[in-house]
Design brief:
Length: about 300
Amino acid sequence: MAKNFKELTTNLSSISRKKVAVAVAQDEAVLEAVKAARERDIADAILVGDEDEIRRIGQSLGMNMDDYEIIDEKDVTEASLKAVGLVHDGKADMYMKGLLPTATFLRSVLNKEVGLRTGKPLSHVAVFEIPGIDRLLFLTDVAFMPYPTLEDKKCIIEYTVEVAKACGVSMPKVAPLAALETVNEKMPCTTDAAALTRLNDEGEIKDCIVDGPLSFDIALYKEAAQEKGATDRKVAGDADILLFPDIHSGNLTYKAIVHMVPGVQNGCILTGTKAPVVLTSRSDSFETKVNSIALAAIVAEELSKKN
């Protein structure tokens, strides 16, 4: 089991080299991450976009452009469709957003002819390496699904369990989070959490241990579980996956960790697609972009085994 991104990246040396297709690749921050991913033996890349701009930016970054396949397409929408089509057709293993609007990027992901849609809702998982915690943490959904229903949450758990397993967590422990540890009918997130726990007990949610509702502190810290008399909870202090009740709680937690915890590292991918999708923000750090490519490569390997 990888306990940090360094171990996760090291594990990539034992699998076949993956390839990321980048839509509208004439973006300095993205090309810098693509360059690092290649230098660290994480993944190769196919760059789709304005070839003149890609070469100009790449050369300014010290990239050897002979190392990359470049597909010249100056129209943003067409570039996104060509890039996602490479993944759809098996010529690349994962899909990454470059210099284009998120809405245009997502439309390409969901395109009926060349996209990566599965018929299920899309979700988002952020993987964190946090100093003082001895394992990777998987936070979901912090960026995509605003108000997930019970069925949505079931899908989110299934997606995130696949990501956690790809990272070496054999039996992920899932904590559906709430403000308290007991069911309160006036708080729907607690009834959803109890329902998800029951579905897990009945075998409808598989390959993981679900225990909720749980408060954030009990999910992560055994001391809190002891103080609150919750040591009998199956996930107390050992949660691998934190399932947030809505995008607000998830996104606020994500940003608090990123901006307030020294030494933290993270990577993010879109899930619910036929292949991993790297959807990073322009505000994300260089290392976050590289970590996201590494995470996508690990997940792509697991998907290739299943297929």
